[in-house]
Amino acid sequence: MFTSARSRAFPATLAALFVAMNSSAARADDDPFWGRDKALHFAVAGTISGTGYGVTTALSADRWKAFAIGGALAVGAGALKEGLDAAGLGDPSWKDFAWDVIGAACGLGVAWAIDVGVHGGSVPPLATSAAALRARSAAMTIRF
Hints:
This protein is 81% helix and 0% strand.
């Protein structure tokens, strides 16, 4: 009798999985990964991170701060937007947030490339404070 109950449950389980897969596939089409709004998320996040990087380099010589602030501004703005969407002001989407992160990374890369170009092709150090430079040179020293 146990095998007959199992054999009756198997088709029902398959039918439930099929329905669940089809309904999630229909919802996925409403939010395609390559949709027009994803390009907007990418562009806005890239602009925010690149601008944040540039403004920070004008205020501090430490490039790690420029990367941190530019990236945090862009990812934070994307997280805030998706949080507001989740609170009922829109349609939350992990795909939108993924494009925010990708755009932030690309924006930082472009801003860094411009920074290197402005400095004649030489890469500015990530940290330029005296303590950081001493720590870096001490780490490179070989002691016996």
